[in-house]
Structure formats: C-alpha cells, structure tokens
C-alpha cells in the first residue's frame, strides 16, 4: 500500500489488482513530486471515490481515462457525472451504502459502501462561462475493501465520529482502518482514537487526511497520544512511502 498524501492511497492486492482511492495528485501539496504525474502510478485497475469534493475527486476522471479503469462512486454522484459527460456510464460503478460489488468477478476482491458523516458537493469552474458552479455530489461514503486473501481495509473517507462505527466494526471486522484525523473537516485525533479503541477495534490504524493545509491541526503525534496504550497498532508512514501486510 502506497500513501500519496491527504486521502490518496494506492493499494496493490494479493491478486495483482491496483486500486487508487480518492486520487488528488497534481494539486496536492503533500504528494511527492515524483508521483504528481498520473502516469507515475503505473497500471491502475479500479478507482474509488468517497465523495465529490475536489481534494478527493479532481484527478479521478483523467486517471480513469488514462488506464481505461472503472470508477466506483456514490450512486447519486454518478448521475451528476453522467449528466455532465465527465465519466461514461460503462466507466463507473454506482454504489449505494450497504451494497457490495465484486468488480473483477467471483473470487475477487469485494467492495462495500458504508456511511460517512460529512458532505458532498462537486465544485467546478464552467469552461464555457468561466463561472464557478456547484453540482450535487450524492451521499459521502467510506469503503470496506476485502482483498482476495480476506484482509479487510476500511477507508473512512472524510467523516466525523458516528455511533454506527461500532456496527461497521462488528459487522465487517476490518484489519486496517485508514482514518481521517485533521479536526477541521473531519474527526480530530481524540475523536478518531475513541472510535478506533472503543468502537471499531481494528488490528491496525493509519492516520490520513491531516497536515495538508494549515487549518488541519490534527497530527499523527496527537493521534498516537490519544490512542495511549490501546492494542490498536498505529502505522505512520510519510507520503510516498509504502507499507506491506
């Protein structure tokens, strides 16, 4: 797994499939220069977008076109993309919360949409008028990704703490949670630590979505301190670094 800063992650599965979640590279101040060109990611088989905000979606259409890769999106956001001609219908998988898809067929990885407590609107500049426009982005989501070997990853997307994190933890039992901790747009380190230690209880947690902008004051050190002596093992890597399981 390669973290590229903010919420952008590339996952190579045991079966050799490459997933990219929330691709924001060129304009991402935390993405290392070597990974800003989309071609630097190599082969991409599937793209997952948690919601419509530009720091999670901006590079998804171009990355999909470059690799002829399908894009998993919250269902209603998919209709917006179709109406604007940004992604063809055969280039996306519209997913509802609670639904599971197997994009590579039986026996392959499984992707399930789960709740995220956030917002979702697509903001863009109309190339014809030059005016800023806002379009419906559907419901924000997180994703449970079950790899071919049964290892489960929960990318929370942007979210505050919510009580049903406990239900998600009990139902899907993720091995690794990639948890947003910035405290300005998502849960802060203390809230995220509460969610991990009291509700979800994964084996590993990796903080994401922090330090990108000055307003994002949550840090990995704050998160580690809040976890205390929890048995949940925190993974800390820098953007551009990999971790293997």
Summarize the structure.
With 245 residues, the protein is an alpha/beta fold.
CATH topology: Metallo-beta-lactamase, Chain A
Amino-to-carboxy terminus distance = 8 Å
Q: What does the radius of gyration come to?
A: 17 Å
Query: How many domain units?
Result: 1
- Tell me the CATH architecture: 4-Layer Sandwich
Please, how many helices? Answer: 6
Can you say what the CATH homologous superfamily is? Ribonuclease Z/Hydroxyacylglutathione hydrolase-like
Tally of strands = 15
CATH top level is Alpha Beta
Q: Write down the secondary-structure element order.
A: EEEEHHEHEEEEEEEHEHEHE
The structural class is: alpha/beta
Overall, the morphology is globular
Whole-number mean pLDDT: 97
Would you write up a description of this structure?
It is a single chain. The chain has a single domain (2-234), classed as Ribonuclease Z/Hydroxyacylglutathione hydrolase-like (Metallo-beta-lactamase, Chain A). The protein is 20% helix and 25% strand. It contains six helices and 15 strands. It has helices at 54-57, 60-67, 75-84, 165-172, 189-200, 220-227; strands spanning 2-3, 9-12, 18-21, 46-48, 70-74, 92-95, 100-101, 110-115, 121-125, 132-136, 141-146, 152-155, 176-180, 204-208, 233-234. α4 crosses α5 (189-200) and α5 (189-200) packs across α6. It is globular and about 55 Å long. The chain starts with a strand and ends in an 11-residue tail after the last strand. The mean pLDDT is 97.
């Amino acid at each position: 797994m390669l973290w590229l800063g903010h919420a952008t992650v590339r996952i190579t599965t045991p079966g050799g499939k490459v997933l990219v979640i929330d691709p924001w590279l060129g304009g991402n101040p935390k993405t290392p220069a070597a990974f800003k060109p989309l071609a630097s990611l190599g082969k991409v088989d599937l793209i997952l977008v948690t919601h419509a905000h530009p720091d999670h979606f901006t590079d998804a259409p171009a990355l999909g076109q470059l690799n002829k890769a399908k894009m998993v999106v919250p269902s209603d956001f998919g209709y917006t993309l179709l109406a604007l001609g940004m992604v063809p219908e055969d280039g996306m998988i519209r997913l509802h919360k609670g639904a599971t898809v197997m994009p590579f067929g039986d026996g392959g990885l499984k992707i399930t949409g789960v709740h995220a407590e956030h917002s979702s609107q697509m903001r863009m500049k109309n190339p014809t008028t030059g005016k800023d426009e806002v379009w419906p982005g559907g419901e924000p989501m997180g994703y449970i990704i079950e790899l071919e070997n049964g290892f489960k990853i929960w990318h929370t997307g942007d979210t505050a703490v919510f009580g049903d994190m406990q239900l998600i933890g009990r139902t899907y039992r993720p091995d690794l949670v990639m948890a947003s901790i910035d405290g300005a747009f998502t849960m802060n380190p203390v809230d995220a630590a509460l969610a991990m230690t009291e509700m979800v209880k994964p084996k590993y947690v990796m903080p994401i979505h922090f330090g990108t902008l000055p307003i994002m004051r949550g840090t990995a050190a704050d998160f580690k301190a809040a976890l205390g002596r929890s048995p949940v093992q925190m993974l800390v890597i820098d953007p551009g670094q990999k971790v293997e399981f």
